[in-house]
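Let us practice reading a record.
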Amino acid sequence: MKLVAEFDRIEEIAGGFKTHYDVFKYMKALTQELEMNAFLIMTLPTVDIVEIGATKIITNWPAEMVDYYDGHNLLIDSPVIRRMLRSTSPFNYDVDIINATRGEGKKATVVELFKRHRMEKGAYFPVHDAAGGRGAMSISGERNFSMIELAKLLFIATLIYDRLSQLTLKEQHPPVEFTRNELDCLRMTAAGKKGHEIANALGVSEHVVNNHISSAIKKLGCTTRTQAVVNALRLNIIRC
């Protein structure tokens, strides 16, 4: 009964989140309560995303860590991402062990980075929202979690990701209209198509395709096509 009451309390708290900042404050407090050092809530890449900065929703990862991670292309061939795309089961990680299959140079870079920020252990929790969007929550520090803790945190991750999805849909955005060509270019980019492939499919030049994508990027308030695709998927402007 005590566990049921705890789960009911968590569900009530999650349902009361009104803003992304409410979620941030809750996750920060939860991380401290667990005596861990960092949390990350992210969308799982549906295109060839190569930057963690383009996938994160809410995190307290140090900015310099995110910049270093992206600057060294550490998201590419990430064993953590591969595992979460294959399964929805939560798992503990040890940065030394989970990166064992990386090339020696990249493994050493990842291990040193996470140990430097006292994030060498922790767990990841793959989740999804009602629209089918895939995401994950991670909590990192210097220990792993018990099975009971994993179960509780997976419940929290599921509720939080679903609530974030609801909050995103309720965000007030100025009305923006996209042309059919802009949406087609975004969809095909999300599907992994290159500029010349999109041009061939639409029967236009690659220059025209780039113009459509640039226009969509501006309308979405982004700076890169990767960010634009992620935002368009997150806001249900396009679907893969």
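A brief commentary: The CA atoms of residues 64 and 238 lie 32 Å apart.
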